[in-house]
Write a structure and sequence with these properties.
3-stranded mixed beta sheet; 2 domains; 7 strands; alpha+beta
Length: about 230
């Protein structure tokens, strides 16, 4: 099986800002390029942080309301020194949480989830920016066609990897949900088949009803007693 990595889904040629890039210029970068965030890099193209639309809006939200209205929002810990946030250096969220091109999609997704972020700058072994990967880039895997998923499972997992007899395990895929049915001779193969199928790009979940000699009912069910 061949799993796509961050390198396969990231966007290269990233639009960036420098620490001294003014607020207005960053907003223009967003508008001109149809993006919602830019990495802030130093002179060696190493990411220092990221400025997003949320960072710009946060700065605007701190300004006095012209009509004198107050929403009574509690002060955020990041509000300290807000009036000085005129450049990328003051606006950015730092340090930048970065990914490597060889990371798996799962590793990138777990990092985003753990850090509560929407995108990861991608850096090479020297720390130099080579691309950026977003949540939408990762979710694109789930657009993979059901037929392609089924064929990969049948060919690469059941045949080439596990060497199961043709038709021993039947595979159906609908909307990324894999269903396995059939029979194997070794009970220990059942969780292996399930785990390998779940790792295929584009699989949402796996349901299995695979029988084996130790039970007359689908794996996972309770066998009848005498």
């Amino acid at each position: 099986m061949q799993h796509r990595t961050v390198r396969d889904v990231m966007t290269p040629g990233v639009v960036t800002a420098r620490p001294g890039t003014p607020f207005k210029e960053i907003a223009e970068l967003f508008e001109r390029n149809g993006i919602a965030a830019v990495p802030v890099v130093d002179d060696r193209d190493q990411p220092l942080g990221i400025v997003s639309e949320a960072d710009l809006l946060r700065t605007q939200a701190r300004l006095p309301d012209p009509q004198g209205h107050s929403v009574g929002r509690p002060t955020d810990s990041r509000d300290s020194g807000a009036t000085a946030a005129e450049t990328a250096e003051g606006l950015m969220t730092s340090p930048a949480v970065c990914a490597r091109p060889g990371w798996s999609i799962v590793e990138a997704a777990r990092t985003m989830d753990r850090e509560g972020i929407k995108r990861l700058p991608v850096v090479d072994e020297t720390g130099r920016l080579t691309g950026i990967v977003s949540r939408s880039d990762l979710l694109r895997l789930f657009l993979r066609h059901d037929t392609a998923i089924r064929e990969e499972i049948a060919r690469d997992i059941l045949d080439r990897t596990l060497h199961l007899a043709p038709g021993a395990v039947r595979v159906t895929v609908r909307d990324g949900v894999v269903t396995l049915a059939g029979r194997v001779e070794e009970p220990g193969l059942v969780p292996v088949v399930e785990r390998l199928c779940a790792s295929v790009d584009g699989v949402v979940s796996v349901h299995q009803a695979i029988e084996h000699p130790s039970t007359a009912s689908p794996a996972g069910a309770t066998a009848p007693t005498a």
